[in-house]
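Kindly go through one protein, given below as sequence and tokens. The question is how this chain folds according to its tokens.

***
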Amino acid sequence: MAEELAVREEDGLEQARVDAILEAVEAGDAARVTELLEPLHAADIADLLEQIGPTERNALLALSSREIDGEILSELDDSIREEVIEALPADVVAEAMRELDSDDVVDILEDLDAPQIVRILSALDQADRLAVEQSLAYPEQSAGRLMQREVVVAPEHWTVGEAIDHLRAAEHLPDQFYHVILSDPRMKPTGYVTLGRVLSAPREARLRDITEDSFRTIEATDAEEDVAYIFNQYHLISCPVVDAAGRLVGVITIDDAMNVLDEEHQEDMLLLAGVGEESSISDGSLETVKQRLPWLVINLFTASISAIVISQFQATIAALVALAALMPIVASTGGIAGTQSLAVAVRALATRDLTSANARRVVLRELGAGLLNGLALALILGTAGGLIFWDMRLGAVLGMAMIVNQIVAALGGVMVPLTLEKFGFDPALASGTFVTTLTDVMGFFAFLGLATVLLL
């Protein structure tokens, strides 16, 4: 049975194992639960806790609380982490927190309420507690919250041999580090050396002579999205963090920077869909409604604008019933085109490929693309509409409306997020709703307006 349930790394968490774990939980078989959890990676156990319901989750934790370590807690989705920590014995939580680097502890504490924060901080050693409290003192979503305080640092005048001897003699080293950071006597970082160069250089070589050209520093108050951009733009593996005086206070590693990029991407996708940036599959029905209903209500009002536009052309629609059948084609095609342009623009803004310096060129590109798409669709739909309804004038109106709406969609898709960003809002915030409303209103207005002028 154990061989049948073996989990290969590329397969992730298999359904057969999930079913077996839930059966063991239902039977109250703690030994079997432990046996099934033991070969799983921390990320897979976190996935399991996220996928099952609250009742099953609490029963599983009651049987296997000793199997929950710091790595599992750090892998958990924010939406259920507090619930899991609340269900665990205090000594288990304390031990789990002691296993983690300071940046992971800070990441967990950020989403907990005050009593739980106090409970966890009190379980840490004094030095660790001080490091975490200092990180929590920095603004939310800043480099100071993202960095780990555990740093491998050496005086800039040391040789490779001295650095190696120091590393070997150290009682505690970070679980993961990529550079030895060099500092002057005032603890200001002056460069860093990769572990590969430390291991390959002669012992007598000075560290300052084998430093990396990629060295740069990040201020603790910098926004975390700026940190992610720097890592992605300059292909960094780690980067020292300094305070306002330029003194070394921590280091950010690539895994944390990539987590920020991933979170930003997920947040943009959720905001574009209008479901709220905190949405998760583990949310209950009521929480899901709270996140989605406001956007649905907003969409209800914006859709009413389209209804008002249509109502102004009741006589036209009554005279030419075929218009009612063709209106959705114009609106939906414009909506898709707007979403395409919007997705590219929001992503380009997030990666800073779209800036004020090249905004005009991008807008002109989208305008050209919208015009060409409109011409192509006008030829196809205009011809088809004219042949189907035996009225080439109707086909011409359909084609012209398609051209107008494709241009509006292309421009709206890039101008809406640019405008939101200019006024300090997240470019993904409600962009989809605005662009869809714009294409619907202009599509109906262009189609019905042209029909009124040319066909009646």
Remarks:
- The chain has three domains: 15-139, 153-265, 284-455.
- The chain has a mean pLDDT of 84.
